[in-house]
Amino acid sequence: MRLLGFRCFVAVALLLGLLLNVPETCNGGKTSAFVRKDEKATDMPLDSDVFKVPSGYNAPQQVHITQGDLVGKAVIVSWVTQDETGSSVVRYWSEKSKEKKVAKGKYTMYRYFNYTSGFIHHCTIRDLEFNTKYYYEVGIGFTTRQFWFITPPEVGPDVPYTFGLIGDLGQSFDSNRTLTHYEMNPRKGQTVLFVGDLSYADNYPNHDNVRWDTWGRFTERSTAYQPWIWTAGNHEIDFAPEIGEKVPFKPYTHRYHVPYRASESTKPFWYSIKRASVHIIVLASYSAYGKYTPQYKWLEAELPKVNRTETPWLIVLLHSPWYNSYNYHYMEGESMRVMYEPWFVQYKVDVVFAGHVHAYERSERVSNVAYNIVNGQCTPVKDQSAPVYITIGDGGNLEGLATNMTEPQPAYSAFREASFGHAIFDVKNRTHAHYSWHRNQDEYSVEADSMWFFNRFWHPVDDSTSYPSK
Ligand SMILES: *[C@@H]1O[C@H](CO)[C@@H](O)[C@H](O)[C@H]1NC(C)=O
Ligand SMILES: *[C@@H]1O[C@H](CO)[C@@H](O)[C@H](O)[C@H]1NC(C)=O
Ligand SMILES: *[C@@H]1O[C@H](CO)[C@@H](O)[C@H](O)[C@H]1NC(C)=O
Ligand SMILES: *[C@@H]1O[C@H](CO)[C@@H](O)[C@H](O)[C@H]1NC(C)=O
Ligand SMILES: *[C@@H]1O[C@H](CO)[C@@H](O)[C@H](O)[C@H]1NC(C)=O
Ligand SMILES: [Fe+2]
Predict the structure, then answer these.
(1) Is the confidence at residue 464, as pLDDT, over 80?
(2) Which of 19, 37, 257, 414 could crosslink 29 through cysteines, CB 3.0-4.6 Å?
(3) Is the alpha carbon torsion for 75, 53, 218, 283 positive or negative?
(4) Separation between Cα atoms, residue 334 and residue 391, nearest integer Å
């Protein structure tokens, strides 16, 4: 019955001429025929400009920041010193007061096969004022370097805020193009939601962790100035018992800290934050998620806490997509979908961003929750309580693009294209958010795909035809 409704909808939309360029077969949405580069991406060599070690004795490098508490009044500052321990202190001051303050952090280090890390410092600065520019300095005692960030506005229902979306970045020439396009995008992302797979160091012999360091230096030009919200992907696991590395996520957890305790999580792989008008839930595709597991119990308790009066927008980040019509990582997200999709519909998640598949895809609002083993109802149906699923794993890592798609395009898939790029989710108020996808081949301001999101709690009107087809 509901499926019939969806077909009718497609037919009506076609009649109205709303969906241009739909293939004659009318199986699904649009598969873009854009001619993209179809060859392996190449990693930038070790002596590339983007990997340059900052000058000065024991100069801090790989500086990155992320949100440090539940609401955005704290920031975790992280950096690495190579020559000696140095100081874990951050000196910071607001543009308004200029009174300098200090916060003391801690350092850690780790060994991986025959690699020894530098001194990895993490320092949380707390009690910051909202909506304020802060300058900060690290490397005190030896070579100091100065950076800045802007805190988000206070959490509230109509606070506009702009998020960038990047996934599966790696450190190839294409990765550098993606980051440049994000930086140059006139829509100006204020925080990056990163959907997993950072450095791809594990593609090197013995997971050469030098490539974790180069990645940290490459991304510093963005990560030191605006928070990146981290999601763990499969390339963060670094589980290699054949070389004696039996602790999963060792490099990742030493290098990238997240404020998981603030949301009562027990592990850094799943957690939540509130930022401006958005409640963001980060899930772990590579930690246990079955019934009775810590992640399951956490999510079960977390979803009822989401207060749409305070944070109208509910965004979920995870690495392995649930709705993916490429012939790569096909159905890898299926078991997690089976566990959690009914909750996403019940709690009206606005959008789910995933990576993993090195391409771009956006779904209709669909759910597939009717199946109960005996009834045979296992087809995704249009569902206005369901999120839009977006795969944004097209950051440009060395593994290259996923170009092989399932044919015909399934009905739930609204748009798919195998090009490198990034996206922007631009929240305007409690009812409207403008979303756009930007491919690297285009000029900085070009939107290769876009959609006006209508909030599922405040304005649950069908938004599938609100975007112009491109
Ligand atoms: C680690 O081992 C590899 C392979 O044996 C070798 O090529 C590399 O130089 C070693 N690195 C260090 C830091 O010892
Ligand atoms: C990376 O991009 C930046 C900014 O566009 C540019 O200055 C730099 O030369 C690029 N580096 C490489 C190795 O492509
Ligand atoms: C939800 O947030 C609003 C606005 O901040 C607040 O007035 C209300 O008490 C909250 N509801 C619950 C159940 O906490
Ligand atoms: C695309 O993937 C399908 C399914 O895995 C496979 O049968 C087919 O050979 C692939 N096509 C190409 C051109 O690689
Ligand atoms: C919310 O933002 C949209 C898009 O900018 C705008 O059309 C709408 O009027 C806004 N709503 C309110 C209540 O301001
Ligand atoms: Fe992945």
Answers:
(1) yes
(2) 414
(3) negative
(4) 14
Could you give the CA distance from residue 202 to residue 200 in angstroms, rounded to a whole number?
5
The strand order across the sheet containing 278-282 reads 30-31, 413-417, 360-363, 388-392, 351-354, 313-317, 278-282, 271-275
Q: How much distance in Å is there from the Cα of 318 to the middle of ligand 2? A: 29
- pLDDT bucket at 162, cuts 50 / 70 / 90: very high
pLDDT tens digits for range 375-410 = 999 999 999 999 999 999 999 999 999 999 999 999
What are the structure tokens assigned to 1, written together?
A: 């019955």
Ligand nearest to the CA of 357: 6
* Sequence-distant (≥ 6) Cβ neighbours of residue 281 within 8 angstroms: 270, 272, 299, 302, 303, 314, 315, 316, 317
Ligand number nearest to the C-alpha of 197? 6
The minimum-distance atom of ligand 4 relative to the CA of 330 is 5
Please state, for a pLDDT cut of 70, what percent of the chain lies above it. Answer: 92
What is residue 33's predicted lDDT score, i.e. its pLDDT?
76
Where b means 16+ CB within 10 Å and e means fewer, 247-283 reads ebbbbbbbbbbbbbebbebebbbbbbbbbbbbbbbbb
Question: Could you tell me if residue 127 is left (phi over 0), alpha (psi between -120 and 50 degrees) or otherwise beta?
Answer: left
Q: What are 213's two structure tokens? A: 């360091």
How many Cβ atoms from other residues are within 10 Å of residue 32's Cβ? 18
Is 310 near ligand 3, meaning CB less than 6 Å away? yes
Q: What is the pLDDT of residue 40?
A: 75
Q: Which of 174, 180, 420 to mutate to test the pocket of ligand 2 (most atoms within 8 A of CB)?
A: 180
Query: Does the annotation mark 329 as catalytic?
Result: yes
Measure the CA angle with vertex 393, ends 269 and 153; round to 5°: 60
Provide the pairing of β-strand 161-166 with 145-150: unpaired
Closest by alpha carbon to 50, among 151, 172, 190?
A: 172
What's the whole-model pTM score?
A: 0.94
